[in-house]
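Project channel, design review

CF: Before we commit to the Shinella sumterensis constructs, I'd like one complete example in the thread so the newer folks can see what an input/output pair looks like. Taking arginine deiminase.
RD: sounds good, go ahead.
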Amino acid sequence: MTAHTPSMSEHEYKEAKFFQTFGSVPTPGFADPAEQTSVWGRPWGCSNDVGKLRAVLMHRPGDEVNIVENKPMLETGGFGDPEKGWYWMGKTLPDLPAMQAAHDRFTALLRSEGVDVILVDKAAPGAMKQIYCRDSVISVKGGAIVTRLARKVRRGEELPVTQALAKVGCPILGTVHGEGVFEGGGFALIDDKTAVCALSVACNEEGVRQVERILNGLGIELIKLPMPGYRIHIDGSFNMIDHETAIININELPYFFIEYLNKRGMKLIELPPEDNAFSLNCLAIAPGRVIMHETRTPRLAERLDKAGIEVLTIDYECVELGGGGIHCSTGPLARDPG
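CF: and here is what came back for arginine deiminase:
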C-alpha cells in the first residue's frame, strides 16, 4: 500500500460541503424590486425622471441661512463673501420664515401626492444652500450616488446627506471623490438606458468620469453637454416632464443635443423668452404631471396644456432668490419605472 498525503482534512471537507450546499446567489440582481425590498426595505432608485415619484430627499432651511450678511456685490447684483465662500444671488436678503413656509407648502403638496419626503435632519455648518438637495445626490437604478459639490460654501453638504440616506436604508452605489466634482443639477435621466450631464465649472471631467463609470456598469449611456461660460447645471436648460417630452431653453443647449432629441422624436416644449427661467426648474411627480412655480407666462401655460401636461403650482419665489428652484430643492430617491 502506497503512503500518501490526504487531499484535505475532514474539517476542510465538511466546510467545503457547507459552501457547496449554501452557495452564492447572485440572482436576482441587486436592483430587483423583490431583492431590494427584502434587503433594503423597499425598491430604491430611479430609472427615469418622470415615473411616479415615491421618495424624495429634501431639507427644510434653518439657521444655516443666517450666515448671509448684508455684503452687497455690485457686479453680481447679489450678496457674498468670496473669502468665506458664501453667496446669495437675490437682490434682497433671505427671508428665512418665508423660505420655511414655502418649503412647508411644497413638502405638504408632495405628501398629498403620496410621496415619502425624507428630510436631511441638520445642515452642515454654514451650508446655507443645503436646501438644494438635488445637487448632493443623484438616483439611479438600485440606489444613490453621493456627489461632491464644487463650490466652497457647499462643501460639507455631502455628510448630512449620506447620514440621511443611511438612516432610511437607501443604498449608496458610489461617492464622487478625489478631485472630482459633480452636482446633481447637472444630471438628468432621459430613459432607462440614457442619461445626460453637464460638463461645467460644477461638473468637471474627473467627476463626470466617476459618475459615468457607475452608469456604464448599469448599462446606461452618458451624453455630455459642454456648458457655455460659467453655466453650472442643465436643469435650467433641459428637464424631462413626461416620457419623451421635455421643457428646454434653446439658447442654452448645444445644437448637437437639440438635434439628438429631435431625431429620437422627443416632444420639446420651448421656454418662451419672456418667461421666468425658474419655470423650467420644475419637478415631474408622475408622467405628464409636474409641480411648477406660479409665475409662468400665458404662452408657456398654453404650450404645456397643448402637450397634455398637468401643472400643480406653488409660490416658491423666496427660495428661488437663493439661486435654486423647485427642481433644485428635491433629490428623488425612488420612482416607478414606468
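RD: helpful, thanks. Helices lie at 10-21, 33-40, 96-112, 158-168, 205-217, 255-263, 298-306, 317-320.
CF: The two ends are 70 Å apart (CA to CA).
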